[in-house]
Write the structure tokens for this entry.
Amino acid sequence: MTANAAVAIAHANIALSKYWGKREGSGNYPAVPSLSVTLAGLATRTRVTFDGAAENDAFTLDGQVAAPAARARVVEMLDRVRRATGETRRARVESSNDFPTASGLASSASGFAALAVAAARAAGLDWDAARLSDLARQSSASAARSLFGGFVELPAGPPMPDGSETLSARPVAPPGHLPLVVFVCVTTEGPKALGSSEGMRKTMAESPFARAWLDEAPRLHARLRGALLASDFLELGELAEASAFAMHASALAAGVVYWTGATIDVLAAVRGLRAAGVRAYATIDAGPHVKVLARHEDAPAIGAALRDCPAVRRVIEARPGEGASLAGGEGGAE
Ligand code: PMV
């Protein structure tokens, strides 16, 4: 019998060269390439059960019935899986994060990667990681990268408006390639003000610097990829910071402001460390939190400085980790 339940685990990833902006048309294709590191430590665990007795798809997150908008995105992915298989049953989706969901930390990457793996398997599909990555990308492009461990890139989408092409992330280097520590500095509790899709849309539509970002991002990406492959941490850190600042500069010019005073304070702490000769670099996603990149040997000093920073409420220390996988035995069924 086809398995009708499966459990998967996926980890968050942090982009070193940022994805910001979608190709026009349908299909959720990124307009620029991105490169991320998948993090051990920030995980989502998702169980999908196709149930002949259920009338509707149900989605709980950390034990709570999810908001309608969050459920709608889950249903969209379940519908894609149902279309691919002929599965007609409704599903129960139970997800939990091992980091506080309400903190506003990005959870869509780990969430949609885990959902793609669990839903496909529960529906009896035996797709490889590339195909699952393409499935995850259609819900959240950053989630495509969480299918793989270590350092992962997602190319820009094809320039075709019909959205029919497959686009998957691919691994660039394994987790141990660069001994990196990522300090996730939580600055504000509470969900973010503007979702990333809406922030990107507004940036592309209204920012006078949208074109400059779209031109610059692939160049930064190529240089950062080169620095990674050369294991050049200092160059990688400089370029990761440059990518984040260029992304946020384009967004800011459209009035898309994710930073708070606390964000600026953490950036100042990172600059203070560098002025003292300690190599720390910052990156920021679609929210107020700051992620700080460090080498192993500098991690104790950098971690202590960040924990001392009054703007930082909590520090989560993460390292490069593995890609998404089934949990609970061979079939992922429990
Ligand atoms: O895939 P989304 O919609 O979660 O967008 C991710 C956007 C950033 O986190 C800001 C950058 C990135 O590449 O992850």
In short: The chain has two domains: 3-175, 177-320.
